[in-house]
């Protein structure tokens, strides 16, 4: 590649007691009345209390909390939160949660910074032209990487489509990575979100816009996930390994923000929209099948990834000509292990929520998804349909 750009200005605050640094971050941006955007799951798990207590100890009393973000956020939710932000005279946003609360908070920040009530008018790439309000993120899953990405997706429930937003101005001022925030993740969510990060990394390492810097982040993330995911499944309260997965998610987010993704995401976005399945699960479902589809175009980088997926011994023992296939086999084995641990589906049929009659519609939506532009192998409608067929059972 003769030219590329790499951009990640997000301050990362990571490790034990990272939460306690929040008050300083607020004060550094002159934030005195932040609004917390989160969901019921975060509150019910006691995670919100950990954040509020940490802030209180640092002399910051947070009183404005919106905790009703749905799993698949919508335009209506964004509008309602923006209205409350203005009513409460807030001056910054703190998102706590997984992909939905973080994406929602990003969209809310657009509305309260730019004005208006219809987030759809800001959809697309490069629409924003100036900095937004101070924005901070505490992820509670180790998968989306949303804390360091310049994108968000919000559902338009009336049109049954997902609106994409992309701008460097959407990046948070700081991301707080604290292992206390992921310790209570249920096994299947732990597995699905980690496979989301794995997919971000693998696609970042093999797609058309890959570059040396994104490769470094992607490879490091893959190694951390491969070394720690199954051990966390066996010992969920291992804070050190939980932190490793959380850091991997952040690294993967930095990687794909600068290299883009491909057909796995195009298929996953479409399946999620059509069948309302979690994004991480969709990524895990399609990853090996898309790698097989792209194989001849990505043989060299996929062969290189075997070192990070399986370790130096297996890499050295595997003939050079078979390393790409062995990488796919290693990912398949990881999915099988996760299925045994927590029942994470490996095929569309195993989800119990996808009808075969829906595959044609999902294929059509896939071809219209922007992520497909960066896939290393061009995909037609028939190609997308064929991958869906392979992923069926």
From TrEMBL:
Report the cofactors: Fe cation
For this chain, the family text in UniProt reads: Belongs to the iron-containing alcohol dehydrogenase family.
Q: Which UniProt keywords apply?
A: NAD, Oxidoreductase
InterPro entries on file: ADH_Fe/GldA, ADH_Fe_C, ADH_Fe_CS, Alcohol_dehydrogenase_Fe
Which GO MF terms does the UniProt record name?
alcohol dehydrogenase (NAD+) activity; metal ion binding
| Listed Pfam families | ADH_Fe_C, Fe-ADH
What is the protein name for this chain? Alcohol dehydrogenase
Which positions fall inside the Alcohol dehydrogenase iron-type/glycerol dehydrogenase GldA domain? 9-179
Q: Does the keyword Protein biosynthesis apply?
A: no
Which intervals hold domain Fe-containing alcohol dehydrogenase-like C-terminal?
A: 190-392
Please, which domain of life does this record's source organism belong to?
A: Bacteria
Keyword Oxidoreductase recorded? yes
